[in-house]
Each structure stands twice: as C-alpha cells, then as structure tokens.
Amino acid sequence: MEAFRQEIILSSVVIYMVFCVAVGLWAMRRTHSPSDFFIAGRSLGPLVVALAIFSSTLSGFGFVGGPGLVYSQGVSSFWMIILSTTGYALGFFLVAKRIRMIAELRDAISLPDVVAARYKSEAVRFLMALTIVLGVMGYLATQILAMAVVMKSLLGGTVMFADISLISCVVVSSAVLIFYCVTGGIIASVYTDVVQGAIMMVAGVLILYTATQVFDGGFTEATQVIMQDDAEAVMPFGTAGVIACLGWAFIFGVGVAGQPHLVTKMMMNRKIADNRIVLPVSVMGYAFAALLWISIGTVMRALVIDGQAEPLTGPDQAAPFFLSVFASPLLAGVVFAGLFAAIMSTADAFLNVGTAALIHDMPKAFGATEIKNELLKARIVTVVLAVMAATIALVSDTLVALLGTIGWATFAAAIFPVLAIGLNWKGATHQGAIVAIVSSLSINVVFNVASIGLPYGISAGFLAFVTSIVLFVGVSFLTQPKIDTMDEDIHRAMEF
Asked: Which alpha helices (DSSP H) does 290-429 contain, by range?
C-alpha cells in the first residue's frame, strides 16, 4: 500500500471532487428561491446545523493555517482554539434564540435583514452588508489559498504534475468551488458538512495518535526538542508574546458571535429548541477536529529542529508535508479529502453571505422593495466574488492563518456589538451601531492595508474590537430616545 501512497491520496481527493459536483447538481434541484439558496429554507435538522457550524469554523484556516502557526510561532495560537470553545457557548447564549425568532417574524434571509429589523435602520443594513463583503474577501481568499497550497503539495509529488504552479492550482480549485456553490447554494454546503464534520472529528483523533508515534518519547520528546532550541516557543504565550495572545483570546473567545457564516446558520434550524442539541455537538466536534491543529504543528516544528525533516518552504506546508510522509496512505487520503471538504463548504458559506449582502441587502438599503431575478443574480455574483477572492489569494504573501485572522477580526469587531449585544440590550441604538461598524472597519482597513504596526504586539483586530464595543455602548447611552420606538414584535422577541 505504501508504494501507492500518492495514488491513494490523489484518488481520495478526486473522489471527493466528484462528490462535490454530484451534491451541487442534487442541491440545485432543491434550490427554488432565494430563501433556499441563502438559508436552506429554515428547514435543517439539529445534527446538520451543528456539523455545519463547527466545520465552517476550522476549514482551511484550521487544517492548513493552524499547524502553520504552531510550526512558526509555537503554542501562541493555542489561545485561538481553546478560547473558541467558550466562544461557541457565548454565541449561542447571546444570539441563537433571538436571531432565529426574528428570522421567522420578518422572513429574514440574511444577517443584515435581522439588524435592519432590530434597529429600524437601512443605514445599519448597508454598513452590515459592507462589513460582510469586505470580511468575506479576506476570509474567502484564505480558503482558496489553503486549497491551492494543498493541491500543489499533492500534485507536486507526481511525475506528471511535478512543476504545477500555484496559479494553476488556484484556477482548478476555484473552478470546482464555483460550480459547487453556484448550483447548490447553501444547501450543497450544509449537507456535505454532515460527511466532512464526521471525517474531521475522526481525523483529528487519528492524526493525534499518529503524531505521538513519530518520536519514541511521543509529545514529551517533541516538546523537549523544541524547548532546547527555543524555550519561549513552548511557554504559555509562545513567540508571539503576551499581548498578541490575549488579543487572539479575546477576538476568538468573544468574536465567534460576530462571524456571519456561523450566526447565519443559526437561522436555518427548524425549531429554536434544536439549539439544545446543536451547541454541545458543535463544541464536541470542534474540540476533536482541533487536535489536528495542535499535533501536526508541534511535531513538524520538532522534526525540522531535530534534523529529521528539511525546513519547510513555508509554514503552511506543515500539514500537507506531515500527511504525505507520516500518516498511513488511507488516513492521509481521508484527511486530505476531509480538508478539501471543509475548505469548500466554508468557502461556500462565505460566498453565500457575501452574495446575499451584494444582491439582497445593499439594494434594499437604497430603497428597493422587490429584487427581480434574485436567484439568477445570486449565482452570477457568486462567480464574481469567487474570482475576486482567488485574485487576492494569488497576490497576497500573507500566511493562510494570518489572512484568516484578519477576516475573523473584521467580522468580530464590526458585528459582535451590533448583533450579540444589540439583541440583548434594548437600549442599543442605530446611532451606536453605525459608529461601531464605521470605527471598526476604519481601524481594520487602515492598519492592515497600510501595514501599520502597534506597540507590544497589539493587533489591529483587537484594537478595532475594543474600540467598537466601547463606542457602541457609549453612543447608545448618549442617543437613547425618551420613548421606546422599537417595533412590538422585535420587542417581544428580545423579552422571550
């Protein structure tokens, strides 16, 4: 079997790609309206929603970028994954019940629909849509870049495609992604999540076991190797530093409730009571799948330091290299297929919310009461967004995980106060929401585009997040009307 390692791995990926095409065609027959395309008609069961939520969180960010961060910065990124589990609980507590109720009351099919109903403001709708589009570009580029990096690593190990370029891999992976997304919309995404979620949980445990066998002394020996080279890498804050880690902890521990591709899925379940099942399954699935992030990054760093492996051409090669060399051919094939599954469904989710923002919410923000041929326009815009994100992936020299962190922080800073706090505090005003979104976007865009560094390792995302919350609360207090102007149905939903 070892003699056919590369063929087994490639066959697994090709089978998955064919599966994606088939699911896209099947889902197209079930997609008859914008509601079907964007939120699956609010008809999904709890298991499907749970697997869709947790698998969307990891994707290429976790499967490629995560091990890359551990390889390059030590244990610093552990603060992301550990605190994300508490973020799930916080997100469900603050958002899940009320967003599902408002979606039902107002027939909402997007996150901007919900905040527009909450604040009675089309300006808030527009700014929320703009936030989603900007964040989607960074995060969607992460998925495409991750998929291309893995594909290049796989094909580069064959004689026929040894010299394949990253551009070619981006084109091929984007073509399959576009077909999958355009035909099936969110229905295609969430139903493949059932398969990929199960694969990711099993793979996380098996890869952890495989990683412990690389060194005779297991993780203890791997950690000792790293400590002898750079003790700081295995200290609680790694090489990124205390401030950076605490910033990540805050962004990922609290910011889950500000991720549109996750909270939108909270609108898709059939019953509100399903959240009692969705939350624990999501947290458990995430915890198992995240074992891959920790184990591969740690072992690959130790292997290179110990001289058992050549230094990687880039940190994002950690997972592909480990799977191609140390995992059994069948396990590597399954994990690679699961990786592509995670990336594609997450990319589909981002394309979905970004498309909704462009063709559904922005026109409504400018007074459109009816959008003709909305489903057709959604499919066209999906293609355009995918091409733009692929271009960003090619021109960016940023690591997969850091590109994803920028997208995550953009969403968290702009959306968390407006949605998570706003759905639980009747005193929140549309003026506060507007100031919070504008300030967070301004900070994220200016500091990241201009590459402006902050002292003590403070990230632009963390600064934007804190500023956004403070301004949201402060401006809301200053602009609260003397008479409650909230619509009665929204008022009751917030009291429920």
From this structure: 291-305, 318-325, 329-356, 362-365, 374-395, 400-416
